[in-house]
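SAMPLE LOG
Freezer: B-3
Tube label: C17
Construct: single chain, 322 aa
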Amino acid sequence: MTRLLVNAAWPRADGAAAARTIQAAGGDGLGLPDSPRLFDDPLLATDRVLAETGIALAGPCVLAMGLRHPATVVGGLATLARRHGPRVVAVLARGESAVRNENLAVPSLRGYLSTVDSVVAGLAAERHGMTLLGSASGPRTLAETATRADGVLIDVGVAPSVVAAAVSRVRAANPAAQVWLFLRVLVSDDSAAAVAPLLGSCAARLAAAPDWYQVPELLRAEVAGLAAAHDYARHGMAAAGPTSEAASFVADRFFVVGDAAVVSARIAAVAGGIDGVVLSGAVGGVLRQVLVRQRRGRTRSEATAQFLGPTVAAVRAGLEST
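STRUCTURE (predicted):
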């Protein structure tokens, strides 16, 4: 069965509370993001979630290697693996948004891959059944990551043709690699509010590799403008901006927002043969609905986790239909 995790990308999330709700909705695990100005430390949060709940899987998703020395990553992950073994799923990445929030340069691909090699080597005798993935989106990064980690968390959106091309890159490089998808999904009737906060960061991926993402020539300049305007300090929390043809294109390529039936159908179209899915928690509609639920007496973490329940259930239905 395809494993289903939710990334707890809402500020200072109560991971243990979220884990229990996500488990009840049919999810398998919780990812803990790495951005020190926005979230709790993901290594410490992972230990708490796995120690205090019965959730099957949890782990840092993603660890921003641009902020961390590989020796500290090895030490933290080895500790988690010794304590929790195969319940740990850890994802490594360059961590563009977290790195930019600290006014640091995003690591080069060569530098990042060297870091991944160091982490994999350092954990060689300390895995204890832990799953170690690398996040990737471009064709070269997909192939290079597939030969290093246990598998790849593919972050290329939800266009079936692009997802299929990315999966093919991973399989060609390493047929034994696990293939996971990072998806921005929400059961909501307010698509504009849900997608607007992340449009810029998604547009940046399209602007960096327009041929790979099949961006029409007439939209490329406007897509690049969306990318340039994104505020990483408010990643996932910014207000909605003006709509445009380019914004609609980016939204369609990277987001699944609608009722449960729509979500299930679109997930089924991309998830056949996939080993795992990670759902982004940093979707604007989540935060809007959280405020409504807070006014009804729930805590912020409770409200967030409870609102994600229908999304988890709809995605699970889509996965099981493939």
